[in-house]
Amino acid sequence: MPKTLFEKIWDSHVVAQEEGFPTVLYIDAHFIHEVTSPQAFNGLKNRGISVRSPSRVWATADHNVPTINQLLPIKDLLSRKQIETLEENCKDFGIELFGLGHPWQGIVHVIGPELGVTKPGMTIVCGDSHTSTHGAFGAVAFGIGTSEVEQVLASQTILQTKPKTMKIDVNGVLQKGVTAKDVILYIISKLSTSGGTGHFVEFTGSAIRGLSMEGRMTICNMSIEMGARGGMIAPDETTYKYMYGRTFSPKGSDWDKAVSFWKTLPSDKGAKFDRVESFDARDIEPMITYGTNPGMGININGQLPKINNQMSKSSKDQLLKSLDYMGLEEGQKMIGQHVDYVFFGSCTNSRIEDFREAAKILKGRKKAKNIIAILVPGSSQVAKQAKKEGLDKVFEEAGFELRESGCSSCLGFNDDKIPPGKYCVSTSNRNFEGRQGPGAKTMLVSPLTAAATAIKGCVTDPRIFIK
Amino acid sequence: MKKINIIRSTAIPIPIENIDTDQITPARFLKTTTKEGFGKILFNDWRYDQHGNLKEDFVLNNPKYKGTILVAGKNFGCGSSREHATWSLKDFGFQVVVSSFFADIFKSNALNNFLLPVTVSELFLQDLFYAIEEKSDVKIEVDLPNQHIRVPSHKMMEEFEISTYKKMCLMEGFDDIGYLLSMQKKTKKFELKRTNDYSLIGRI
């Protein structure tokens, strides 16, 4: 029977499937970080059990790290304790840590692919919902809670009910100035934040095939924002080219063997999905969110929805609550909307390509006076590479603050918060109330739109800067 | 964990859709290394103003509403996978969350912490909101063994689904680790039989 990419990987990782029980699924790689792991390690200690396979655990510090003077002792004592706890746990349980000061430190979903840890055909979990990012390589990757982190540490397996499968096809050629971020914001705006719940999504079609690995990661990263259990894209030459020669990629004859295996993974002809959605790439324009969930997005030149009688009471309530929080009016345009902050970063858009693209617009230009612009690279390696290519100069000359790597303002965990009431155009993934700090008003956009907005000082269509 | 059987309680309604885990437990409270004490910051930014004063219009601050059952709008628990959201709800005293739709990771986290997520139809959910609005101390019964939720005073009843395995866990007080560890022989066998595993390159 023809199988989908998802089914091939899932089926080849089933350890046991007993009548009346969920599947016992083997996990190839388990990423951990300081925020969702301490309670799991406490659980292991209380039970008196060890980490079953430390070599399958990959640890870094990202959520709670400062982005200035990372090598000095952390001022916030709670943050410091959390980082130290990760260090102790890794030491106690024999796990290698790419912590602060390590050349490989960075956002967990940036470093996995960058180091070549993430590979096609793998099962990958992490106590973080954006684990779906790794699906860009044709892996089954999904976010889990801390109880499940403990289960995987203890057994290298996880209990899961098999999700349904969904195919999202995007065909055609993307317009100039339209990026992977716009594609995924467009899809979520059409399917809603719960449109993919219960499903594992495979993204297909010529527009997806045409994306770089960075772009594919952006797409899969945000599949959780439509509620999907995970997102994935079949591996192809773009995947292999990106992976070749990376630290943990196979070498020599292993590489050839691996590639021939990976080539067996794409969905078979005639494989059935539980659900299929199709979009035309030509319909997609640069996108921006106006509300308080990632499904509330519109074409950057469009107008906000108006309350009408066809809306259900709950949709009306949600729209009114969002507009009230955001300080926006129904039916208004987003173009020209006042902005205070521009944030470049997060596991969605903090990779070298994101910065290269933004730098093309920023080169020789300056940010507007009313804007505070912060750029936080996704990893220490991205920061190093950006310097090597001279991108740091472009950003500095444009008036950006360049920080050290971490999750930063994406979730307002450390000191990098957007102040109450301030508008932030952000390349991150969530515009929930208070996500970037209590009272912060977030608008999600692509790196190009963020760059154009920084220059003009208000919401701006990036295409005016693209020839 | 405390076993679950039949829960009878009044309920606290939050008729808002897409309540994300950032609202349930804002990120800045996630700097701890234990699971305790999250109840006091449950829905922090909806519950308190920026000076830490109670916001009177929020339902958790309204003495009229009490109970161990939370009734919330569609797509409850979307967003971040943080289990801290579940710990907050549990620590505050909730035993059950009723909604017409739950986000996947939240649902797993809830079940793993013996917080029972009860999925009802949208129609039943709306009726439930009306019933609570009409009479804030309306009694609700969530019967796990028989898998139904009832509002006796309003003659409302609906069945809900839960996996046989998870139902057994909640009723008997089991968690998943015991089961997974009992499968270790099979896990070892799986590893030995495997081909095409490239995930440990550079590690061993």
TrEMBL record, chain B:
Principal EC category: lyase
InterPro entries per UniProt: 3-IsopropMal_deHydase_ssu, Aconitase/3IPM_dehydase_swvl, AconitaseA/IPMdHydase_ssu_swvl, IPMI_Swivel, LeuD
A GO-annotated cellular component: 3-isopropylmalate dehydratase complex
SUPFAM superfamilies xrefs: LeuD/IlvD-like
Keywords from the named record: Amino-acid biosynthesis, Branched-chain amino acid biosynthesis, Leucine biosynthesis, Lyase
Positions of the Aconitase A/isopropylmalate dehydratase small subunit swivel domain: 5-122
MF terms in GO: 3-isopropylmalate dehydratase activity
Catalytic function, reaction form: (2R,3S)-3-isopropylmalate = (2S)-2-isopropylmalate
Gene Ontology biological process terms in this record: L-leucine biosynthetic process
NCBIfam families attached to this UniProt entry: leuD, PRK01641.1
Family note: Belongs to the LeuD family. LeuD type 1 subfamily.
Quaternary structure annotation from Swiss-Prot or TrEMBL: Heterodimer of LeuC and LeuD.
Name of this protein: 3-isopropylmalate dehydratase small subunit
Organism in which the protein naturally occurs: Candidatus Roizmanbacteria bacterium CG10_big_fil_rev_8_21_14_0_10_39_12
